[in-house]
Specification:
Rossmann fold, alpha/beta, 5-stranded parallel sheet, 9 strands, two-stranded antiparallel ribbon, about 30% helix, single chain
């Protein structure tokens, strides 16, 4: 589904970061090349070495990483990328995206991009439903960001509700779908349907005046 695509995977500081390791594998199985960028907080949950081993690519955390010759990692890493995917995307990261803040490598990378941006929210159900979070999500959607999820279910805090990061395979499907041309985007369609008809025999039938 993603054959030949170059995906920059951003990982922020949430418990769901463990799912991102599996997401790397699933993206690769779909044919993508994956480059991982982490926030400092994300390294408290999963180490960069894990993502480097899985992706086969160097992992970047620091905006001043000396491995980038011109010290412009936020520009170099986004060049040639087909999409940037942030999974998990914490409430804090969504807020920074909505306000255009760029105070670390990943947030700066998202601001300096020319490719599509997909975010997979992951947080406590109350954080997700908070009016501030919903305002931030509405703003980034208006800015053209694809928000994938969240899902509903058991959460790390022991509660149950909306806020779980989508499972890796679900995210791969969302990412792949984002590359499909939207030929009907902006169009309005009217669909009509007649009554239902259930045959009794080759001649007679039961019908109604309902639209079905």
């Amino acid at each position: 589904m993603l054959d030949g695509k170059r995906i920059v995977l951003g990982v922020t500081g949430g418990v769901a970061a463990y799912k991102s390791a599996e997401l790397v594998r699933e993206l690769q199985r779909a044919g993508a090349r994956v480059q991982v960028v982490m926030t400092e907080a994300a390294t408290r949950f999963v180490g960069p070495v894990t993502f480097q081993a899985l992706s086969g690519e160097p992992v970047f955390v620091d905006a001043w990483d000396a491995r980038i010759p011109d010290n412009m990692a936020h520009i170099e890493l986004s060049r040639g990328a087909d999409a940037i995917v942030v999974a998990p995307a914490t409430a804090d990261f969504l807020a920074r995206l909505a306000h255009g803040l760029a105070d670390d490598l990943l947030s700066t990378l998202c601001l300096a991009r020319e490719c599509a941006l997909v975010v997979a929210p992951a947080m406590n159900r109350q954080m997700w439903s908070h009016p501030a979070t919903q305002r931030n999500v509405a703003q980034i959607v208006a800015d053209g960001v694809l928000v994938a999820g969240p899902g509903s279910g058991d959460q790390a805090c022991g509660e149950v509700g909306l806020g779980r990061m989508l499972e890796p395979l679900e995210l791969v499907e969302e990412i792949a779908a984002s590359f499909v041309p939207k030929t009907l985007a902006g169009r309005r369609a009217l669909i009509t349907a007649g009554p239902t008809f259930e045959p009794i025999d080759p001649v007679r039938g039961i019908t109604n005046r309902s639209s079905g």
